[in-house]
Please model this.
Amino acid sequence: MPAATLIRRTGPLLLCLLLAAFSAAMSAAAPAQAQKAPAAYEPSSGQPGKDVVWVPTPQVVVDKMLDMARVRPSDFVMDLGSGDGRTVITAAKRGARALGVEYNPDMVELSRRNAEKEGVAAKASFIKADLFETDFSGASVITMFLLPDINLKLRPKILALKPGTRIVSNSFNMADWQADETATLSNDAGCTTSWCTALLWIVPARIAGIHRIPQGELTLKQEFQILSGTLRTEGKIFALEGKVRGEDITFNAGGRKYIGRMNGKRLELR
Ligand SMILES: C[S@@+](CC[C@H](N)C(=O)[O-])C[C@H]1O[C@@H](n2cnc3c(N)ncnc32)[C@H](O)[C@@H]1O
Model:
């Protein structure tokens, strides 16, 4: 029977009953509607972290850091203190496998969501861990935006990494281990914060000592990537100055430039 006919026949009483039932149904549904989804976690720049506060690296600096480290698909990149995951995600977009180490579990979850949104969750992963307790010896590139004293604390572990491992830091140095390259981005280049300098180090092969080579005898002292010492050749001894970049060596001695490479424990000059 149509509703109008029903109402006409049963009169206003039924109408009142229907309205009451409708209103009861609505008020029963109301609490369910009021239960909104929990607000998404939103970090704020400067918020405390275990050993360092969270301040994000500007995206143009992330890009520059990865350019300087020449990140490519064969790389395994680790970001120590990975914040919202931007460096790991950017590395993954370049085809590299990348892992963020972050102490704050909310930031880890946020990074995972960000990686998912950016479509790189298969290459970008995140672990909730203390960077001081984490083994990063498998990385070919390490990125960080920490503090000078933390960099210094990590330095012995970094120097023990495989020669050629690239380390890039936003703004903070490694005390007397000079960077191999430094680049500062200007306002015009899109960096509008105080954190616009990217620094690159390449872990040097450990090469100090005496090397007997077909050309003579090389006695090398090494301060990080800086070489000094002597080359004894053709009955003469020449002072030398040079550099080691990963496993590649260059030095000048007796007015000549020498180029070589550490092949395992053997030094080969070209
Ligand atoms: C300055 S932020 C850099 C974030 C990110 N790497 C970037 O460049 O945008 C430092 C990050 O390190 C994290 N952190 C601080 N101490 C840590 C520790 N001991 N282990 C792991 N992460 C830590 C903080 O929670 C913060 O997210």
